[in-house]
């Protein structure tokens, strides 16, 4: 089994109508901090990396793109070549941020923009003041796709990511990178876009603090706390001020075997198999099942297109 060309999640870029409010909400609830501001764009991080979440001012709230950290600089070139060979559109062969040395951005056939790039600079303080408990890092993104089968094949072809687990009808599929975490990217069957974005915390205490922080603002948890069957991780979900579904997790399963066969699970009717979706028993809320945020249009990637 070949090794994945990407090591872990690099960043998530979002278009939002109110970057300041979204940044404030992410700091107050998720416990991140602002690491940079430039021309209305705001960068957020929870560790030494320059940026994990990037907010761009826009007329609508949607997913701009997702960054994946390449295992080596040469892997960026290989992803470019493999994406082309798979018939995927290359949006840009230059990095999206000045602080990144090398990057290539391609589009899935459903329009999800994914940049594979060299690592973010590790130039931020490890410890920082701020409200709430602080995450360890931004750990995964769960897309939404009309055709998760094709989505998984395209990601595998371009990046070498491995299909860790899927449900019997591809209602949900989970893919892992070279760091072995159960999933770095996943997809639920639905409209093309994003379902949720996830921060990882040290332990269950972090999830309790998130729930308490939401209560201060008279907001509520959408689903959780619980423990997923797929990934075996603790979880809790809420909706942020820009309408994105945010997951907070701890204790994600790590898989060392590159040759492990893909697991196939029966999700039950309407995700009713509690052993897969939540080992603690409480099934997902209708709000969780129906949640969806769109991807932006290709013409909104002006920071890439003008120099592509």
UniProtKB/TrEMBL annotation:
InterPro entries: Glyas_Bleomycin-R_OHBP_Dase, VOC_core. Coiled coil: none annotated. Residues 8-119, 137-251 form the VOC domain. SUPFAM superfamilies: Glyoxalase/Bleomycin resistance protein/Dihydroxybiphenyl dioxygenase. This is VOC domain-containing protein.
């Amino acid at each position: 089994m070949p090794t994945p060309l990407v090591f872990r999640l690099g960043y998530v870029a979002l278009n939002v109508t109110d970057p300041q409010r979204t940044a404030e909400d992410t700091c107050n609830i998720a416990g991140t901090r602002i690491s940079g501001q430039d021309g209305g764009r705001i960068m957020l991080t929870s560790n030494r990396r320059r940026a994990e979440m990037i907010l761009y001012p826009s007329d609508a709230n949607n997913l701009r793109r997702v960054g994946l950290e390449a295992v080596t600089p040469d892997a960026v070139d290989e992803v470019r070549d493999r994406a082309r060979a798979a018939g995927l559109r290359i949006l840009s062969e230059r990095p999206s941020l000045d602080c990144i040395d090398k990057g290539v951005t391609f589009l899935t056939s459903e329009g999800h923009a994914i940049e594979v790039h060299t690592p973010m600079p590790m130039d931020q303080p490890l410890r920082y003041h701020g409200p709430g408990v602080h995450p360890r890092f931004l750990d995964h993104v769960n897309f939404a796709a009309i055709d998760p089968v094709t989505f998984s094949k395209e990601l595998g072809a371009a990046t070498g990511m491995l299909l860790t687990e899927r449900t019997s009808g591809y209602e949900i599929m989970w893919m892992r990178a070279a760091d072995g975490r159960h999933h770095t990217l996943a997809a639920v069957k639905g409209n093309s876009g994003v379902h949720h974005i996830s921060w990882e915390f040290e332990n269950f205490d972090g999830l309790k603090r998130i729930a308490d922080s939401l209560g201060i603002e008279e907001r509520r948890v959408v689903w959780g706390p619980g423990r997923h069957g797929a990934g075996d991780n603790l979880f809790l979900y809420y909706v942020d001020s820009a309408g994105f579904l945010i997951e907070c997790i701890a204790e994600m399963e790590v898989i060392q075997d590159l040759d492990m066969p893909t697991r196939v699970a029966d999700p039950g009717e309407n995700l009713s198999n509690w052993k897969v979706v939540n080992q603690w028993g409480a099934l997902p809320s209708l709000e969780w099942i129906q949640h969806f945020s769109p991807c932006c249009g290709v013409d909104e990637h002006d920071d890439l297109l003008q120099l592509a």
